[in-house]
Amino acid sequence: MFKRGLLAVLTLLALLLLVLVVRALVLPAPALSSRVLPSLPEQDRDAQVERLAQAIRFPTLADRPEAFDAFHAFLAEAFPFTHETLSLRPFGHSLLYHWDSGHDCAPTLLLAHQDVVPVSAMAEWQHPPFDGVVDERFIWGRGTLDDKVSVMAILEAVEAMLAEGRQPACDVWLAFGHDEETGGAQGAARMAAWLQEQGVRFELVLDEGGMVLPGATLGIQQPVALIGIAEKGYISVTLEAHGEPGHSSRPPAQTAIGDLAVAIARLQANPRPAGLSLPTRYMLETVAPEQAFARRLVFANLWLFEPLVVRQLAGNPETHALIRTTMAPTMLSGGVKDNVLPATASAVINFRLAPGETQESLLNWVERHLPEGVSVSIKEGFFAEPSRISPANSDAFERVASLAQALPGDPLPAPFLMIAGSDARHYQALSENVLRFLPVSLQQQDIARFHGPNERLARNQYPDMVRFYLGLLSSGSAQ
Description:
Elements: H1 2-26, H2 42-56, H3 65-78, H4 80-85, E1 87-91, E2 94-99, E3 108-113, E4 138-140, H5 148-163, E5 172-177, H6 188-197, E6 204-213, E7 224-231, E8 233-242, E9 246-247, H7 256-269, H8 278-287, H9 293-299, H10 302-314, E10 326-334, E11 340-341, E12 344-353, H11 359-368, E13 374-378, H12 395-405, E14 412-418, E15 434-441, E16 456-458, H13 462-474
Parallel strand pairs: 3-5, 3-6, 6-15, 7-14
Antiparallel strand pairs: 1-2, 2-5, 4-16, 6-7, 8-12, 8-13, 9-11, 10-12
Helix pairs in contact: 1-9, 2-5, 5-13
């Protein structure tokens, strides 16, 4: 009896191993159309770099409306064919362009934002952030990555097509927001609402998001072009603790600041559950064929090995945010003098909501872990639920992925979950295919340049950005 039972167990284990191995062996690599990015004359490349440098010199910050006005005048002068041919509808300082193809087919919407974040740590900048310095290797300044560079590259591509007398096969819309860094309520949200009122539906909406990064983080040698098919949600909450005010020489057992510290410590000690969302699952399955066999076997059988993969991703700071809702205490307030007990103390915590998380589920979790005397409220300002997940097997995704694959370095396109936010969230009602990809190639350490000091773009990459957008506009264009 024991032998028969042991044999049955061994047989089941052998069958399981067979299933795992077969799934790993037959896992197909993504099949993409072969595309070549259009070429650009050398003199055009130098002129494009110089125009980008000029654009950086306009400090388009939220509190500088005159900078937007000057920037718009510059755009009209720098791209005359575009402004003669495309219709332009302003929404405050946001710009909505329409390129009428004359054909009745689903249009494309390209997004980018003109505004940039304020500058901190000025002493750490190698070149002043709004000087638009161009040296032998880089274009320096605010907006060279996030995201004025896309405004310029898209317009360069449109202008190049118009200069050659070319038209797209289907209509193209360009939406350049002016307040993405503060939530997009006056820019992207208004433009999206107007487009919805007009009944416009898009075959593709493309915004900033993923980029080409080294594949080492995912265990492969080939660079990876990460194309966002979803983005995390955003909410900030305020924790407030109340205590007995008085002289610090006679402190009570519990103080407002002490209770607040306990609350934050409890939340950090009990993180939200981790798991593989669909975008992360798709990403791992896409890179699986390029893995060594042992890792390929794991990624091809996530139905069994998900807990193991989640633990591995959780242990890496570069991938931890992909698997759960994250929290970051960002603001603290309490006390007026070093020897006075404050009556109240507060903290602001920013959460990035993973797919499946909701405002209600998050607040319930926060409330369960707060000590007595500490309350939670939603901070006024921007809020967004996690975005819808766009399909990774659509013609629109293939269109973007095949062009991403044609970028230098032969990157492997893969869907992924964007952990930051973008204007794309406002356009979800207008298309089934809302994607997020910035066609630049960076090293992992360059990520800190977004919103950080020494933002820059390699000057030889900017023409490749223009070529990417030119390829996107030219794909299927009328000849």
